[in-house]
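Render this sequence as a predicted structure.
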Amino acid sequence: MKIRISFVSNSSNTSFCIAGVDLGWPRDQCIPIAFTKEELQQIESLSYKYGLTYEVNGYGEGQSWIGLSIENMKEDETLREFKNRATKLLEQLFEENNISVPFPERWTLKANILHEGWHEG
């Protein structure tokens, strides 16, 4: 008979760094002005077509972000140029697929450097 004496875990760590935007949490009664789950799923499925990274916290049900991974920054590209390139890709994704921003007065597609990390488990 074998006895396991080491620590076993189903937890995981996640982190990312992108030039992008915070899409927020899915719309519900507490957050009425936000993207619906269906809209977020559409954005996620389209992100790869545009070379963008889609990240979500909470096993697919939490806050989400989209943008250009810092790994895609070119050697001769300035940070401003990288953020502008990410902004253009985001605008292209939203415009070409008729996805409207739920609260345009306070939310834009202008990319910023975003980084997050969390432990799930």
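Summary. The chain has one domain: 17-115. Strands lie at 12-24, 53-56, 64-69, 112-120.
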